[in-house]
Structures
1.
Amino acid sequence: MSRLGRVPIHLGVALGATCAAYAGSLVAVTALETGRQDAARVEVAPLADAAARTRDANDRLEAALAAVADRYARAAGDYDGVGTAADRSGASIAALADELRPLRRGLRTVRIPTLPARSAPGPVSLAAPVAAPPAAHATTGGSGKP
């Protein structure tokens, strides 16, 4: 005779009922948790959309700033080239004035003005400062805390 034959039937029924109650409670908890997560997703969806739009706007702003920095660097290079050309032109005019000085002494009617000293332009930075992208602060809500 098997050992199950000696176990009273009401203990088997109690064990089965307990297992069924436990399984039912697991189903209920899962359903409640799924509903809560769906509600949280719906609640957070506008914030996620706003974060995505902000990220896209920041990416466009970063690209625009990079383009401005590039144009600034080119303008600074052009400015430096203009200063060099002005220095060469000033030296050529000074040399011409030196060559014409004897003629000036001979012809009192011709006046050659002297050139004022050229003031050097201020320093030009060829690089614009670039700011680091902002830090992102986000939570997933996966721990069950809002």
2.
Amino acid sequence: MHSNTPTPKGSYRTRLKRSNGEPELLSTESTSFDTWSPDFSSSGQQNPTWTRAVTCGQVLCNSMERVEWAGGNPVQVLLCEQCGCAGCNSHGYVQITRLSDSIIWTRPVFDSDIGGAYRCLDALGGNGAIHVPETIWTEWQQRFDSLPDLSVFPRTTRSELIDAWLLEMPPCYRAAEGVSAGDLTVSPLARARLLIPNARDRLLACTSMDVPAAQRLLDRILKWAESGPAAPIDGAIRRRDVEMEALYLDGHGTEDWHAFAIAGGNVYLAFGADWVLDPPVTDH
């Protein structure tokens, strides 16, 4: 069955973008909830009352009450709107992991024999990874009894974190030869091994660094991801007042990529114009 999620109205059309039009980390601080009722007549059921979560013009979930939050990854946050069953339609999937005092939603990975038929949540492709601080999740829990504690979700690993970081890359640069940005059979590490060298080779200029220095930092970030993809992240995505380094790549797009920040000799992965992974990337 196919989804027919109504287009949110009014202020929901406002997308979160930087001043240059580039998408940034999708914060949930301004999430709104909309009560609505899908049409279940085709499945012979009574129409339920659902609550849809929307932030910055993006639908995060079409039924906060019915999603199987504690059922393990991947989590389908857009349920079939004709029967309400998880897995009935093929889109709206996310990977939910716990990063210190927050959770992040990234792209899930499916087995190659079935993964080609599935799609991640559209909001991930349009605005990057989704960040839900514990304070926001707690507010949601007070409204929806079905939401579990953060401890239910597995810890974020370098693999999921590097996927969240690559989702910050402008969409026109997210596809490299041999991999589609929407291919959910590709692991985050395999994607990083394609996209980071591709960005390295296409790098034309930076905000303040010279190109060879920035290329070395990209190599360092890839090495960090490769050295322990399953290693849990001991850190958090936080707002920090640091200067982001914008990378300008050769290609069809005109957007710059705020890839990292340098402060005190340390390298911080950047997530939009204001957010970084703290602590910084290490060499082990």
3.
Amino acid sequence: MKRLFLVSAGLLLASQVIFSAVLNGTKELGVSVQPDSLILEEFGGWVPGTYIFKNNSKETIEFTVRNAVFVTSDGAWTSDNIGPFPTKITVEPGETYNFDDNILVPVEIVFEMYSMEKLKNGECKFIQKFNYLCGDKEGTVSVKWDVKMPTSPEKMQYLITNTPDYTILAVKSNFTTPESRENLAKFITFTEKIYPQIVKAFGYMPSKEKKAFLRIENWEMFPYFVGPFNGQSFIYIPANLIIYPTEWMNIAFPRELANYFFYSEFPNAPFWMARGLTCYLAGKACAGAGYDKIAQEEAAKYTYGGNQYAVKGKKYLFTDQWEIYNAGDSAMGIGRAYQLMGEIEKLCGSDIFTKLFAKWKQDGFKFSQKMPAIEKTALIIDALAKISGRDVLALFTKFGYQPGK
């Protein structure tokens, strides 16, 4: 998992300018910083900065939380709020406290500004706000830093590639040989074959982010979808899986792209739907792009897992209890959910999922984060039944669904 940092955007009132940082202290709590600006040497990363708080009151000041946002230099774009983060700082009357911070400037945010051509002169703003209590009084101080990138993004550690369907960041140091560059080019060509097949399977393009964001970094075992992170979703792809290509990526990448499509529009779906549907539609996209063999092999694995789920009498498919089971149990559950997707298509028609998504998007439907999985499942059953006119409840009952439990 990637690390998040910090604060909610707010208007800066009666600000005092010292160096390039804009400081917003209060009568009882003063604030200054060191250095006067944050220097970012790479395309995202950690930058140290110190906040110096001075208690000018006769009461003990106790900090509670902090929040942060990034803002383009022209003020036209603001990132999602990063935080709140608990902040345990106590400053006694008349005393000064140095808060040594390590500020994360996320790659995703830098890239978002870069892609909008909003990194004017390689600069942006970082605003952090600290909430505190001074006796019974609540207060807030904030600092707006200048973030400066002395090196242009094109000369930093990433290869930046834009295609009709993707924006791709790849760490340069991983692709230094002709063979590795050639394999990267082949992978990008492959992704372009998959994208229209995923669009066909889902029947839509993500409304917020028309182009998928791919990050190719480090060496790990598998690709994975991340989102939303700092307001932006992306697919993380280990560089070794491109430098040393395997057939498995022909199904693994479509699955993560399916996650990107699904979660971008329908976050908080029950786990059985999110995992079963994305695996099922990824298989269709993989086969549609011409990779039938690996698609069939993957389908056989899911079918085996689903059969094992039934044989072993598992009962967690439509619950919120997936996390209490081990990896083997989870694989069985995903296999069972995959089988359910195939049965839904047989009952309701091969276009049932594109119809379902179209209806949900038309209605602005979203899953409530706090709603239990069993209640979300009831909504899905009702929607499928209304669209298809078929007895969907009976099918789900065969797969272990029990209303109200």
4.
Amino acid sequence: MRAGSTLLVTLLLTAAVCTSCAESADSPSPPPAPTRTASLGTTTPSSAATSTLSATTSTEPAAAPSPALAPAPAPVPTAIFGAAAPIRIAGYPGLVGSGFAAVALAAGFTSDGAAVGVCFNSGGADTATCRFQDRAGAEQAIDVPMTFPPGEPERLDPPSAARGMPMLRRVGPAAYDYEAPPLTGTWAFGRDIVLHVAEIKGESNGVAAPRLRFGGSVRGRAAVFPIEIQRPPVDSVPSDVHFIRPNAVALSPDGQDLGLVVHSAVGEYDSTYTLHRIPARTLAARIYAMTAGNARGAGDIAASRSLCALAVAADARAAAETCEP
């Protein structure tokens, strides 16, 4: 079964985050500005579905995926952020399966960092599908034979078809008892930011569909979530049964990009997987900026200015959307 709805990914931009990073602490706070949402793209749930970053400011589904925003070529200034440090995350990894099939077997970045991808078995077939998305958002899908050793998890044949992506680990007796691969590596913002993943379940009344939120916290402050992924409710499927879950959160080998592999299933054999590649410094800038907004709302103007300065240093273009110079 493959449901016919679309997957909507939004980038939450709080326009009131840092209205003026250079203003005086004695200046009165302006009235809150409205919250905007920016579409990261939509995907149709097919074996060739794809989702890429977009710079639009509309919540309407895009007609076609937009090219991914490339990370700025200049290196992240170590004088400001310090040396790269291990990446940390809360709320991940966890079990990825349920009673549904279409379980991922491998997911994350390829060993050369050229693509983020996923290999999954849609169930009831002796082949798997492997999908890869490059930096520009172009996607390739291939079918790969599988072997089924007695008493062991199914395997890709050959394993090299996964192009070095991490394999999910079978942790239980059921065919869907797989655990997402751990997030590893070092990145420029490891001293400041802990990433956070929050899976929000749907409601049984069918009105509120499940959501997946992705963001982080800065130096122990409250987590903020610039990215939210959701799939509208599907007719005749209770929202508390439908789920949306990360099968991989990965850092590219060069530390420049974060990859998300998301599975959203509403029924058996639903292979709605979407691939998301996010420039690390862009995500960091938006986490700093949204945290600055929280500090400003609490009356801590000095902290707000400091956090906005970090946002600008991470990615001036991303910070400009929420922190005015």
